[in-house]
Amino acid sequence: MKLSDKERKHLEDIVKANKWFTFEEAEKKIRKHWNSFYSKNDDYLSTQRRQLQKIIRSDIKGTYLKINNRKPTTTDEEWFKQNAYKGWSRNLFSDNKIEKLHVFPKYDYLFKENEQSIVLSALDDEFDDIEKSEMRDIYENLYGTPGKGKTKYLMTEPYLFALKHEIERREYPTKTLYLLPHSPKEITSKFDQANFRKNIFIKIDSLIDEFALKVVNEVKAQQVARNGELDRYEDILNFLRTWNDIFPQVINLASLEKNNMFKQFLEAKSKLSKSFFFDVKENVEKEKLHSKYSFNKIAKISDKDLKKKIKNSIYSFENYTLSNLELLMIEDNMLSNQASNIRHNFSRFLYQYLEKNNADNLIFDALRNAGIKDI
């Protein structure tokens, strides 16, 4: 099927709008730290060339087979996780072999219009991808053939950006919560004294209070991280309120409030404004253990078995508490990530809105001070 002149012109506009990288150029960018200060030996990311090519091939093939298309059964929560940081995986069975395909997330919303995540390769002809084959021909007509013959991989800046994040995610996997419970050894060491039964409740309370304090500090840190995103929202809102008063003909809040994107922005800000809360329930646990290990109930239990029971009780409580906290933090991180995406989209809309309303440089300077640059 041959593309029409209009379709070819659209592809040409995309090719011209993007900055392109050969595989060799992309590989050099990937190995360097985002901050050049830390990129002394180009060893920030160490994925081997063969593995890097395998990741790209898997992404191309998975995209062609549309494994990243949303299924009717996919919930909004699952869809956001996949779009934000998980991606999409599927096992492909062919020639009695299993090939695991993975399409990693792209972040095109961070770039300008027509700047898209695109990778061109010899696979385009193999998969009969007419648009990409045509795009590669347009590129070579405009800029020449990079290297000899057909370039193995040629990618745009948004694709390289997403690829680098994917390699980083694989090499430096993140964990939401690094706080650990007291180890069994730490717990039993508190009850090593010969007369430990006399102070059993003091020791139990001490361990639980120490653990609870660590959790409280973790919750505070989570709130501080969320406040960082909330501050960015406040900066934008303060900008809108201020300039609505000064130049209502350029920035009109009443008009903006009818816009769905601004409504989403305000809804996300409202959700961020609610405090991150987690109840350790340490007092409930202490009461429970005081009852469980009261003098009458432990009188006939040997010291060895008693220490083991106490160890299991405290360790189970702490482990269970941390599991619940981590689940809550994952949900909260999703909320913050969603808010960040909404803020990026609204920022792009706001910049274009001001351009259409012929805002002057003074307003754009104030917009940059509010954290929105030329996007």
Secondary-structure content class: mainly alpha
What does the radius of gyration come to? 28 Å
Give the tally of β-strands. Answer: 5
Q: What's the SSE pattern?
A: HEHHHEEEHHEHHHHHHHHH
pLDDT average, as an integer? 85
Large-scale geometry:
flat
Number of helices: 15
Residue share in helix: 55-70%
**First-to-last CA distance:** 36 Å
Molecular structure report:
With 375 residues, the chain is mainly α. It contains 15 helices and five strands. The protein has helices spanning 5-17, 23-31, 49-64, 76-86, 123-126, 130-143, 157-171, 184-189, 200-246, 253-256, 260-273, 282-292, 295-298, 303-356, 361-369; strands at residues 20-22, 88-94, 97-103, 119-121, 153-156. The strands form two sheets. A three-stranded antiparallel sheet has the order 1-5-4. It has a two-stranded antiparallel ribbon with strand order 2-3. The mean pLDDT is 85.
